[in-house]
Amino acid sequence: MIIENERPVLSSSTWTATANARPDTPPLREDLQSDVTVVGGGYTGLSTALHLAEKGVSVTLLEAEHPGWGASGRNGGQVIPGLKEDPDTIEEMFGPEMGRRMVRLSGAAPDLVFSLIDTYGIDCGAVREGWIQSAHNAEAVRTCQERAEQWQRRGADIEALNKQQVDDLLGSEAYHGGLIDRRGGGVHPLNYTLGLARAAIAQGARVFGHSRVISLDRRSDGFLVRTALGSVHTGKVVLATNAYTPDLTGRLRRSMVPACSVQVATAPLSENVRRSILPYGHVASDTRKLLVYYRLDEHGRFLIGGRGAYGDGGIEAQMARLRARACQLYPQLGEPDWEHRWGGFVAMTRDHFPHLHEIEPGLIAGLGFNGRGVAMATAMGRVLADKASGTADKDLDFPVTPVRTIPFYFLRKPAVSVLAAWYALVDRT
Ligand SMILES: Cc1cc2nc3c(=O)[nH]c(=O)nc-3n(C[C@H](O)[C@H](O)[C@H](O)COP(=O)(O)OP(=O)(O)OC[C@H]3O[C@@H](n4cnc5c(N)ncnc54)[C@H](O)[C@@H]3O)c2cc1C
């Protein structure tokens, strides 16, 4: 069965072409007992399973395809600290206590990613030179300055950049200034996911691939989770399906809108061209509402990503725009060999924040990373593991909120297209 959002044009990538061997994750073919069952094998689910297994909790993870099949195996691999909103706003919105925890959790999320990579020896081309946010106009330069100041007040290694500095670090003259956040970096996203799966299995988690959850029924002492060939009788369930959330619980799926993001990548560049692009090993994205994100991979391929579309024709058109944009940013690319193109779905929420829900007692979910989940979904997994192993809500590093569905959900696709057109206008100002 194909997930509703999937399109064949999206799944074969630079990352799948350069992936490490997958860990053995056979389909579930028996009836198991488990304290916790995690649904979804991306960063959120695997980090939850790993952290639970580290605590000695018995945990089973069920993935519909294979670990890293979803956004976690397809993204730009940019490890970016923080949430979409800046720290002062988060503390204002969530209060000094919870707000501060959220800022700390999201700011330190890259530390968690790179420490898991170190601890478990995950081979994923990790580099930690920092993330550059490049400002597309004068107002965005000011926003970057304020953002840098707010994080600096909290001790983060981040700095505003003027035009000359950003030109030098990017190897491109396309921007007006920006910031460098040295907490960030880059990974091979699929190999990071596969490494998390191996680590979780090594710690005792049972991880099953090709095991789509088809039903979830409450029992007196927990839940019965069914796949086509087996079942798990479990105390708690953690839903970690983000933009690929199925209709298992009704409301959860309607709390976010899956939006397509696509990428294109060149073949490895010649040594001299490669040295002129992001020469110090940074990863970068810009400040536009319809932003582009770009980087080199460890073999010197140039990758650029941005907004996708819902139909195959629209997706191809967006990919062509990205190729043109890449050559505007870096004319030295000439007419490169565009080797791969792919994409996936990000889960957009109304307030642009990720959410941690307890849909009913023992049925927990973490989702809505709004295109910024390499670090944050890994961190959310740790919080979900705390919640599933009994930490009181008041002691968690992220608030537990009720599920709020998006009104007029059936209009989500035209609404995303209208919003994108509006953002394109705003970006031109
Ligand atoms: C093209 C693209 C580029 C991106 N670039 C970046 C970036 O550079 N930096 C960044 O921070 N973030 C980026 N993101 C966002 C980031 O990839 C996501 O936020 C993150 O991967 C979400 O992880 P997840 O584990 O929550 O979800 P996913 O990785 O999507 O995993 C969900 C899993 O649930 C499974 N599933 C669904 N239904 C069922 C079921 N019924 N039973 C069992 N399993 C099920 C799916 O098969 C899937 O594998 C990007 C996303 C995309 C799509």
Automatic annotation (TrEMBL):
Coiled-coil portions: none
Domain FAD dependent oxidoreductase: 35-386
Annotated stretches, region: Disordered: 1-30
Taxonomy, superkingdom: Bacteria
Entry keywords, A to Z: Oxidoreductase
Entries under SUPFAM superfamilies matching the protein: FAD/NAD(P)-binding domain (SSF51905)
InterPro entries xrefs: FAD-dep_OxRdtase, FAD/NAD-bd_sf
Keyword Chaperone assigned: no
Pfam family, one: DAO
Transmembrane annotation, as ranges: none
An annotated Gene Ontology molecular function: oxidoreductase activity
The keyword Oxidoreductase belongs to this UniProt entry's keyword annotation: yes
Xref: Gene3D superfamilies: D-Amino Acid Oxidase, subunit A, domain 2, FAD/NAD(P)-binding domain
Composition-biased stretches (Polar residues): 10-19
Its EC number(s): 1.-.-.-
PANTHER family, per the entry: FAD DEPENDENT OXIDOREDUCTASE DOMAIN-CONTAINING PROTEIN, SARCOSINE DEHYDROGENASE-RELATED
Protein name, UniProt field: NAD(P)/FAD-dependent oxidoreductase
Organism: Fodinicurvata halophila
